[in-house]
Amino acid sequence: MKAKLIVIEGLDGSGKSTQFELLKNEGLNCGFVTFPNYGSFSGRIISEYLSGALKEPSALTSAYSAASFYAIDRYLSYKSEWENTLKSGKNIIAARYTTSNAVYQMAKLDTAVWEEFLEWLYDYEYNKLSLPRPDLVLYLNMPLEESQRLLDKRYNTQQSKDIHENDIPFLNKCKKAAEFVGNKDNWHKINCVENKQIKSKEVILSEIVKEIYKCLNLEK
Fold first, then answer.
1. How does pLDDT run across 127-153, given as a tens digit for each residue?
2. Which of 175, 180, 32 is nearest to 112 (CA)?
3. 168 vs 188, which has greater pLDDT?
4. Is residue 138 within 8 Å of 187, Cβ to Cβ?
5. Which one of 64, 107, 169, 218 has the largest count of C-beta atoms within 10 Å of its C-beta?
6. Can you tell me the distance from the alpha carbon of 139 to that of 99, in angstroms, rounded to the nearest whole number?
7. Rounded to an integer, what distance in angstroms lies between the CA atom of residue 148 and that of residue 133?
């Protein structure tokens, strides 16, 4: 049976990293990868970009150039770390993927060109670079005000945030972009807040695991 690729997606401060680490203890017998890979050569370029060192005045140039940085980082990771694992039949769970590239780069652009950009990105990553398409995307839906509160708690100072995390209007656009792509590609939304209260990490984890088991045709 063909192995599956499952992506944990969400905006900054939505709890992706926490849930990704918790999943490793769920006995899923999956490989785990996360993006970007900051320790790699390509990851260092991304770090420069996120620091603002490679900031472009043109949103269009920035969207396509930054998308290329992230895509190449993903390609290098795939070829050197997990291609053989996936092809051997072992399922992979990824924290962020092409899905993040779509959301964060589309948010820089006018909505009128979102379809065009998404078509280019998917062709580039999935066809030109031959990266596998996700079988399931689990989107952690966290209200922006809550994610910012969690980010402030993590960093303590605004100066510690990267250029995306520190730009609230941009993150609002990212949320709209995520809704657009999620609806188009049938992402499964995991609501992280219920009755104006953030759900516990254990409750969110249980919802994630339930969907993963369904995707993998497993019983729990």
1. 999 999 999 999 999 988 776 676 666
2. 180
3. 188
4. yes
5. 107
6. 10
7. 30
DSSP per-residue codes, 191-214: E-EETTEEPPHHHHHHHHHHHHHH
pTM reported for the whole predicted model: 0.89
143 contacts: CB under 8 Å, gap ≥ 6: 193
In this structure, which amino acid lies at residue 42? S
> Torsions phi, psi of 114, nearest 5?
-60, -45
Q: In the block, which residue shows the tokens 């291609």? A: 83
Q: For residue 151, which of 49, 42, 36, 10 has the smallest C-alpha distance?
A: 10
Token pair of 199 as six digits: 């759900």
Residue in 161, 184, 209, 195 with CA at minimum distance from that of residue 11: 161
Closest to 70 (Cα-Cα) out of 13, 148, 131, 112: 131
Please tell me the total number of residues recorded for the chain in this structure: 220
Whole-number Cα distances in Å, 134 to 10, 99, 110, 127, 169: 15, 9, 26, 13, 29
Q: How far is the C-alpha of 205 from the C-alpha of 16, rounded, in Å?
A: 10
Residue type, 69: F
Report DSSP letters for the chain, one per residue: ----EEEEEE-TTSSHHHHHHHHTTS----EEEESS-TTSHHHHHHHHHHHTTT--S-HHHHHHHHHHHHHHHHHHHIIIIIHHHHHTT--EEEES-HHHHHHHHHTTS-GGGHHHHHHHHHIIIIIIS-PPPPSEEEEEE--HHHHHHHHHHHHSSGGGS-TTTT-HHHHHHHHHHHHHHHHHHTPEEEE-EETTEEPPHHHHHHHHHHHHHHHTT---
